[in-house]
């Protein structure tokens, strides 16, 4: 009788964050023994008690430790086969010690570093983004030079970023009368809901097709230009908006006038809706890319239209 293959053991770092919480949920639902690395200070933080209880009650094993504590990393990594990082982008370089520990742990079959946005190797805004993407590329090169098996997840923009305002800097909700369109409005960007990004990520961890590959998500209905978004929103509110166009040079000037970090929202708009850094290339398996929405057609996801319905 054929022996059932045991499910890979998964460690999630950043499990108390929104994305990390979803990753642990889908890991548990998929039958993976799941662990979460939790800082000591989090256990004594009253604001995190509900989150910790939710993780624990769902079956996640909580391990005390942090990315700057080598001993705790060694102990946590030794317990698992897969390591998934979901730390905030501003802390991406904090993964260096973790990578060194993984390098020394031969049982690790996959590392998924904290990315989940645009492909850092395919963006060209290094003079504007304050190292946002170069730091992620630096982590990639360290993983690769360490011969660590990996999967990179590139899912475009999370829907909670820019989409709630219909890509209108400074607004918290979509416009009802006037809308600013950047560039000609025809360049397409990709939007994915965080919970869906987590579902696709967990699908990859035991899949040989995604080993040492970059998984791109371009879900049907979620690859939209600004003109697409405006037309969609106009249909929902049954009203035409007055469009004001901002050219590339005008946007660049505004970015240069705006101090960090307030400029980053406009940097992302420039990158995705002017330069097209989400969609300016074909997904080519011979160059290390795979299309997640084609690999996993069974994953149900929220569309941009459905998200906009929640804003009505």
UniProtKB/TrEMBL annotation:
GO terms for molecular function: oxidoreductase activity, acting on NAD(P)H, oxygen as acceptor. GO terms for biological process: lignan biosynthetic process. InterPro entries: NAD(P)-bd_dom_sf (IPR036291), NmrA-like (IPR008030), NmrA-type/Isoflavone_red_sf (IPR050608), PCBER-like (IPR045312). Residues 6-308 form the NmrA-like domain. It comes from the Eukaryota. Gene3D superfamilies: NAD(P)-binding Rossmann-like Domain, UDP-galactose 4-epimerase, domain 1. Keywords: NADP, Oxidoreductase. This is NmrA-like domain-containing protein. It comes from Brassica campestris.
């Amino acid at each position: 009788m054929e022996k059932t293959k045991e499910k890979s053991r998964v460690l999630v770092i950043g499990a108390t964050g929104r994305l990390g919480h979803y990753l642990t949920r889908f890991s548990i639902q998929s039958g993976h023994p799941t662990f979460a690395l939790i800082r000591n200070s989090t256990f004594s933080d009253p604001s995190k008690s509900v989150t910790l209880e939710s993780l624990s009650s769902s079956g996640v094993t909580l391990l005390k430790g942090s990315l700057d504590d080598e001993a705790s990393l060694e102990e946590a990594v030794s317990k698992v086969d897969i390591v998934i990082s979901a730390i905030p982008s501003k802390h991406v370089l904090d993964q260096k010690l973790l990578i060194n520990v993984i390098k020394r742990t031969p049982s690790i079959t996959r590392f998924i570093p904290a990315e989940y946005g645009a492909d850092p190797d395919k963006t060209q805004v290094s003079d504007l983004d304050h190292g946002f993407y170069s730091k992620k590329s630096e982590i990639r090169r360290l993983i690769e030079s360490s011969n660590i098996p990996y999967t990179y997840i590139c899912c475009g923009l999370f829907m909670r970023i820019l989409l709630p305002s219909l890509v209108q800097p400074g607004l918290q909700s979509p416009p009802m009368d006037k809308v600013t369109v950047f560039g000609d409005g025809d360049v397409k960007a990709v939007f994915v809901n965080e919970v869906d990004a987590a579902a696709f990520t967990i699908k990859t961890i035991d899949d040989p097709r995604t080993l040492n590959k970059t998984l791109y998500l371009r879900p049907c209905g979620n690859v939209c230009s600004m003109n697409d978004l405006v037309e969609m929103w106009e249909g929902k509110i049954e009203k035409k908006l007055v469009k004001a166009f901002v050219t590339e040079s005008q946007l660049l000037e505004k970015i240069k006038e705006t101090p960090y970090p307030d400029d980053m929202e406009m940097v992302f708009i420039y990158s995705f809706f002017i330069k097209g850094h989400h969609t300016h290339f074909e997904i080519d398996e011979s160059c290390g890319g795979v299309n997640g929405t084609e690999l996993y057609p069974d994953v149900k996801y929220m569309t941009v239209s459905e998200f906009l319905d929640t804003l009505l």
